[in-house]
Amino acid sequence: MDEKPYNNVFAIPANYTDSGKILGGMLELRNAVEAAFLLLLAGYPELMYLPVTGTVKIVIMTVTLLPLGVITVMGIDGDSLFQCLAHVLKFAKCRRKIHMKRVGFRYDPKQEKRKAKKAHRTGVPAGEKNRARRGGNNRRQVSEDSGD
Questions:
Q1: What backbone torsions phi and psi does residue 69 show, to the nearest 5 degrees?
Q2: Which tens digits make up the pLDDT trace of 95-128?
Q3: Where do the H-state alpha helices sit in 3-49?
Q4: Secondary element (H or E) of residue 22
């Protein structure tokens, strides 16, 4: 009796990861919908309300709408255009400025007396109690009767 060897190795098709894409996996559906929305939003006023001849309208629409459509369909860094815009706005809202004091630099006394800002984290006190954490006088105080 001839027994055929059992083969459980399968070839993965090229379009395996193309789910959620259109036009043969070339465009993501979200990017295409955003591009159509933005092109209609920007193209309709240009088409209807520009008081110029047809040839000039075509040139203006080519110069403005073609780059907008290409950038929107491509996306930015793997995200759609609106997702990237949301990331930028979230960063602008939540960013923090980090400033370290320079060693050996004499600051103006008026700068030292700035108001203490509220702590961003819960449980971390702000103000004079948290001076060492903010970079103020952070030397340990040794009591005189400790014998050191």
A1: -65, -40
A2: 887 777 777 777 777 766 654 454 455 555 555 5
A3: 29-49
A4: strand 21-22
Q: Is the distance from CB of 32 to CB of 70 less than 8 angstroms?
A: no
34 touches 70 (CB < 8 A):
no
Across 102-138, b (16+ Cβ under 10 Å) vs e yields: eeeeeeeeeeeeeeeeeeeeeeeeeeeeeeeeeeeee
Instruction: Report residue 83 as tokens.
Output: 């997702």
For 30-57, b where at least 16 C-beta lie within 10 A, e where not — what string? bbbebbeebbeeeeeeeeeeeeeeeeee
pLDDT tens, residue by residue, 28-71: 999 999 999 999 999 999 999 999 999 999 999 999 999 999 99
